[in-house]
Description:
By secondary structure, the protein is an alpha+beta fold. It is built from 3 helices and 6 strands, in the order ββαββαββα. It has helices spanning 32-38, 63-66, 96-109, and strands at residues 7-13, 22-28, 40-47, 58-59, 73-83, 87-93. The chain is globular and about 35 Å long.
Amino acid sequence: xxxxxxxxxxxxxxxxxxxxxxxxxxxxxxxxxxxxxxxxxxxxxxxxxxxxxxxxxxxxxxxxxxxxxxxxxxxxxxxxxxxxxxxxxxxxxxxxxxxxxxxxxxxxxxx
Length: 111
């Protein structure tokens, strides 16, 4: 299956400090062309931020649309590269308002 920019997906995150590998939500932030040419996606972490929000965390404004069971934030400062094999499934997508906020931060950090 192919995923598109702004899809919220369930991803196996084995590479987070101090945690065991487990399935977590993430946001596809890369253009479709990256997957087409290289077979990978860039994703941003989605978290409940129970241990505290960070500067530039973006609140998911419609968690039902995103397929999230509770309130979460998109953490653009935490990007990863994953392949199809690391993505378990699509959960949903984010609103146009959230897309605009994420795109603005991406332009700052990855112009």
